[in-house]
Write a structure and sequence with these properties.
Distance between the termini: 37 Å
Number of helices: 9
Largest sheet: none
Radius of gyration: 20 Å
Helix content: over 70%
Number of domains: 1
Order of helices and strands: HHHHHHHHH
Length: about 270
């Protein structure tokens, strides 16, 4: 495995002396990853089910029953709610908030303050790096946007449908525009990428985290997901080359907020 370079982790503390073997550190990191992702999924499911019970009380008069989800009258409502702006905003807000807090708590308990900050990349980066990566990311987005306009099969109307059904745009911006990017970056470019670096080089870690990032967006069509993959790659290299998680968080946040403001984008 190639050594971590100064370019990736500017701070001299970036690779502390490990008490545990790298393989064990990786396993512990992946265990936390799995637990946090499960809590994230359960939080999203809880918000969705709460809204389902509120809208269809006649099907849940004796309490929530998972078996009711197989009811042909209930399933279309579940699919409809998954595209509802208010529900999307609420699920993104609560799942992002709860899962981010749990992730930070567990990583700090596992690695200690200095180790957690190093693993996740909780450190500042020079302003010029923010500007450089904003420029790189903007070029990528413009290229993907041009591809989507040239080939309609790469377009998606997901955000248009979400915006068309929302009654609280501020909540949508907070949930989808801010908390969702923060959580995804902490999970993928923070915990996952940092844990992978115990065993593999930066390029493999970036590739795996980009693949996971793509799979977290199953609400899109397969062709649209292919456009998400290069975004994950750029976000990963922004993380390892700046040494700071705040760089990919900013890029991801800008992308989501712009997608809300200009929903015709891919």
């Amino acid at each position: 495995m190639e050594d971590q370079s100064v370019k990736e982790q500017p701070s001299p503390e970036h690779r502390p002396t490990y008490v545990r073997p790298p393989g064990l550190e990786f396993a512990m990191g992946m265990g936390i990853f799995g637990l946090v992702f499960m809590v994230f999924f359960l939080a999203q499911t809880a918000v969705l089910m709460r809204e389902l019970v509120r809208r269809m009380p006649e099907h849940f008069s004796s309490g929530f029953d998972l078996g009711a989800l197989s009811d042909p009258l209930v399933l279309p409502e579940v699919q409809k709610l998954s595209m509802n702006g208010d529900v999307v905003a609420s699920t993104a807000f609560w799942s992002g908030l709860v899962a981010s807090a749990l992730l930070l708590l567990l990583v700090f308990l596992w690695r200690g303050k200095a180790g957690a900050r190093s693993l996740i990349g909780i450190r500042s980066a020079p302003p010029r790096l923010y500007l450089i990566w904003i420029g790189v990311f903007a070029l990528l987005v413009l290229g993907l946007e041009a591809l989507a306009w040239a080939f309609p099969q790469f377009r998606t109307e997901f955000m248009e449908e979400v915006l068309g059904s929302t009654t609280n745009t501020a909540m949508l911006v907070l949930g989808v525009g801010i908390l969702a990017p923060v959580f995804e970056e902490l999970l993928l470019r923070g915990l996952l990428l940092g844990s992978l670096r115990f065993l593999v080089d930066r390029h493999v870690a970036v590739a795996i985290s980009a693949g996971a990032f793509t799979l977290m967006h199953l609400q899109y069509e397969p062709l649209v997901m292919l456009m998400i993959l290069p975004m994950g790659v750029v976000l990963g290299y922004a993380r390892v080359n700046s040494g700071s998680i705040f760089v990919p968080i900013l890029l991801h946040l800008l992308n989501n907020v712009i997608s809300i403001a200009l929903p015709t984008t891919y």
